[in-house]
Design brief:
Number of domains: 1
Structural class: alpha+beta
Strand order of the largest sheet: 2-3-4
Largest sheet: 3 strands, antiparallel
Radius of gyration: 15 Å
Distance between the termini: 24 Å
Number of strands: 5
Helix content: 25-40%
Strand content: 15-25%
Order of helices and strands: EHEEEEHH
Length: 102
């Protein structure tokens, strides 16, 4: 498992966030921006959490600093995010047992 948050592709980042109930929208006014929205998934509701981020490298990559801001906004623990990232990349955690054979 990585010790710190790496730069990620926008696609991988959005896929991981879906597991936390955060979804992405592509604003019409920008090719490199993404709007991330949490429950209740309606930005007109006062309790709805949302944040607009900019991806770099022609809208394909997300920097570690931006990722940390998103995690803070949606109250996602950095260690929990890193564990899911490691699982999604096929990395095993030290001391973890292998997944059961199905």
């Amino acid at each position: 498992m990585p010790d710190s948050i790496p730069e990620l592709s926008l696609q991988d980042f959005v896929t991981i966030l879906k597991g936390f109930g955060v979804y992405a929208e592509l604003p019409e006014d920008s090719r490199f921006a993404v709007r991330l929205v949490g429950t209740p998934y309606n930005s007109f509701v006062p309790d709805c959490k949302s944040i607009r981020i900019m991806a770099h490298n022609r809208g394909t990559m997300v920097s570690p600093l931006v990722i940390k801001q998103v995690l803070e906004k949606f109250a996602i623990a950095e260690m929990e995010f890193l564990e899911i990232l490691a699982r999604s990349q096929g990395a095993e955690r030290p001391g973890a047992s292998p997944p059961p054979i199905q």
